[in-house]
Amino acid sequence: MKIIAFCVLDESYIDPAIVALRSFCQWNSGIEVLCYAEKGANYSRLRQALDGYLVTIKEVAFPKEEIFDKVGGKYLLIPNSAMPAISQRLICLDELKEKYDLIINFDLDTLFCNSIKNALVGADANHIYGVDEKENRDRWINNFGLNEWIPSGRYFNTGFVIYGCEVLKKFSLYKTYLKAMKETPERFNCPEQDFLNYFLHEHLVLLKPCYNLMFTDRLYSSLAPVMVHFYGSLKPWNSAYMGNADFYYDRYRKATRQCRRWLSSNFMSDC
User: Fold this and answer.
1) Closest Cα partner for 19 from 210, 245, 242, 235?
2) Cα–Cα distance measured from residue 110 to residue 21, given in angstroms and rounded to the nearest whole number
3) Number of domains in the chain
4) Within a 10 A sphere around the Cβ of 170, how many other Cβ atoms?
5) pLDDT tens digits for range 173-182
6) What is the C-alpha separation between 166 and 157, in angstroms, rounded?
7) For residue 15, which of 213, 266, 242, 244 has the smallest C-alpha distance?
């Protein structure tokens, strides 16, 4: 099977991208990664940090749509400035689905602690594979009135997903995404995640939580995480996170020190 991994970043995420991508590559040798970076920034530090790994940095213009300013209203769960980057994911999926059998996508507020390759065993192009996210599931079901026709109530977090390309070929993802947001912008509090769940839930196979372990989960030792996800507004590189200096934070700090030569001085001072 032809497999590719990809991620998306803008200038504000160069430092976290260095940490996340180096950790992914160190644990997952042999998996090629395409890194879609917004045009206009200097990515020389990122290129240097990833030299020798199977990573290609592709600079592209991210989408700018008027509807981005209206999505989610006061209940938008991400910074509005992140709308172009998260929407670019759908453009990437549309582009890659014709060339591969499986597409791996992961967030960059993450740290890989083990290989993802067991998740690929038995994976096929007719399903998608992700971890259930209880935190946003009830909000999503209520917003979209899905209680009656999604009895399982499953809702996957897009911080780590394996997409089967035969599923993706059924949709023009970005075009459908824009249409859906224009029709009911207030429903999309977590825009691309809500959209992908709405259209792809029937094809979902749940992965073990260890593949996308939320940093708020205290079962770290028993779950042996493959990837820790620092989702939400609290990030380990922000001073506000310091009060939560637990095993997750310590692991991230250690990884950050190993990347010291490529990281900005501000990023290092916060860690």
Assistant:
1) 235
2) 9
3) 1
4) 11
5) 999 999 999 9
6) 20
7) 266
